[in-house]
Amino acid sequence: MLAAIALYLAAPHQRWGALPAEPAALGWGGAAMLVIGLVLLLSWAGPATTLFIAATLLMTTWSIVPVAIAWARRERGGSR
Length: 80
Fold this sequence. Notes:
The chain crosses the membrane at residues 25-45, 51-72. The chain is mainly alpha-helical and 80 residues long. It has helices at residues 2-10, 23-42, 47-77. It has one domain (2-77). The protein is built from three helices and no strands.
């Protein structure tokens, strides 16, 4: 999930705010974490299962993070 968040932060239209690092570093770091995670999953599950698990986690994270950010900003902002 850290890989998915890092890759989300590397996107040019993310709404996180001030980034903890350069977008390029976040992109490469996220890609490296994703590859490491895939290798670790491959040692436990088959290739098809590994890709399914990784894709499911990526899609879930990329669906929840923008909504969570919008919700947090709404809570801080008070009114619309």
